[in-house]
Amino acid sequence: MNTTTPDLALPMSSAPAAPQRQRWRKFLRHPLGVIGSLIVLAVCGSALCADWLAPHEPNKQRLIARFKPPVWASGGSTTYLLGTDNVGRDIFSRILHGSRISLLVGIAAVGVSLGIGVTLGLLSGFLGGRVDTTIMAGVDIMLAFPQLILAFAMVAVLGPGLGNIILVLGLTGWERYARVVRAEVLALREREFVQASRALGVPTARIILRHIMPNTFSSVIVMATLQTAQAILAEASLSFLGLGTGLSYPSWGQMIALGRDYVNVAWWLSTFPGLAILLTVLAINLLGDRARDLFDPRMT
Amino acid sequence: MIAVIVRRLLRLVVVCLGISLITFLLLHLSGDPVAMILPEATEADRAVLRETLGLNRPFLAQYGAFLGRALQGDFGQSFFHRTPALPLVFERMPTTILLTVFAMVLAIGLAIPAGILTAVKRYSIIDHLVTLLVLLGQSMPVFWTGIMLMLLFAVAWNLLPASGWDTWASTVLPAITLGTFQAPLFLRISRSAMLEVLGLDYVRTARAKGLHEWVVIIKHALKNAAIPIVTVIGLQFGVLLGGAVVTETVFAIPGTGRLIIRAIGQLDFPVVQAGVMTLSLIIVLTNFLVDLLYLWLNPQVRIS
């Protein structure tokens, strides 16, 4: 009979570093995650410093310089690195400025979804009963509704514009948070530390905010990162369809839509803003995947 | 089993009611729909419109009337086309469905074999390469993929038409565009589902029996991996229809999506409502069928 106890020293000795630092080391070991974060930093930098980085005013028209090709193509010049559009605006400068819209919409929309979803999920899971049934019915309906189509319809009524786009994308993306947070709360609710606080007479609101909410953070962070990428894509789609943030400020989706109209004349009009979206979304996805590996091993 | 189906049916009814409520509320979201439909009209004209649209009545009565008419397929006259709204949507539906089905077939045909291959050859060069492609594919906006394909195949090489939906050749680029939009997710799911199953005991037993590796993979493993794959594919139908709306706009395809987008631009609310509600109901019904299929495929759920 095998009666020896398992060797307890083994796992202990292999984990001397603090979990936080270990996480960092693990993060740095994976090249894709690092590349992703570098690109995200670059995009944030371009959004913050677009005014200084851009060689031209993003909306400045110069009809004499219409349809200039990018610098390496024949007829291109270093004045317009990525060429110009149908009214002679500099594509490169517009891409730099467009990052502002993408990031702003991405982050703000996720903020709205996060606020609604986490609140409803906490309430639903902790209070249970009729509150739970009602909220979950709402989640079911929202999940059944195709996000993009609902967003189209809402923009139709509210009208385009930055605030409305954020609102619409925020209002159509909260159900996943509600679901996951609710499931986590249900699991946590029966745990001893929550039972103990309840027995001690800690008010419900305090139990939710201080004891339960922090425990849902890791999965929420992962979802939020991935949703940011989704929201940037959704904003681009809306802008492409002319339902976006308006024409007064350049946005990537709207630049691609313009390129669609001149697809026979100037390939660079839609190619470069599209690459900007691709890189940004890819980088955020890479970061989100890494975050999932590190924070939430259950989800992989 | 029957109890489960009845519960799902009840949920279906609730979801359908929810969809109709949201569709109904759409018009009211703006505050005053009349001011939006007739921005420059006199107060008298607006009062007439308010009366004909029934906007003077209590909220619930309005919703009831909307629901009653919607059940009979009556969403009112299109402001722009001056004909009933629902037939306009239905006329264009076959095009949209056809595009979606083409894309679906293409995505499944590409993604499932590739998913199986990468699961079997895990950590090989092919696996890494495909993973990279999946990452790229998931980050590409669908309309941009469409324009890039158009630039290459229509403008640069002149092989396929750039837009329209009148010949078989013109369906190729839209189908590829929408297909590559979905393929990455399908691939990810089939890869992870296969990986999970390949590690199970019964697969090892099948191998130990001396069965040929591909018999084990196709006959034994794939059968069980199919459950999550089918579910995800079914549930993605809604996303695919959303993508179809965008793809139709890129390639100027006369489908429901383009109709809705145009109607949004023209503030043609009957058409928007009819279109949004039809698409949503199609998606909800598909999801319901997927649920049933899931029950049939997975005996565990049936028993519990």
From TrEMBL, chain B:
Keyword hit for Cell membrane: yes
Ranges annotated as spanning the membrane: 9-29, 97-120, 132-156, 168-187, 229-254, 274-297
Chief subcellular location: membrane
ABC transmembrane type-1 domain ranges (all copies): 93-294
Keyword flag Cell membrane: yes
Locations listed in the record: Cell membrane
Membrane topology per record: Multi-pass membrane protein
A Pfam family: BPD_transp_1
InterPro entries: BPD_transp_1_N, MetI-like, MetI-like_sf
GO-annotated biological processes: transmembrane transport
Record-level GO cellular component terms: plasma membrane
Keyword field: Cell membrane, Membrane, Transmembrane, Transmembrane helix, Transport
Family: Belongs to the binding-protein-dependent transport system permease family.
Protein name: ABC transporter permease
UniProt source species: Tectimicrobiota bacterium
Taxonomic classification: Bacteria, Pseudomonadati, Nitrospinota/Tectimicrobiota group, Candidatus Tectimicrobiota
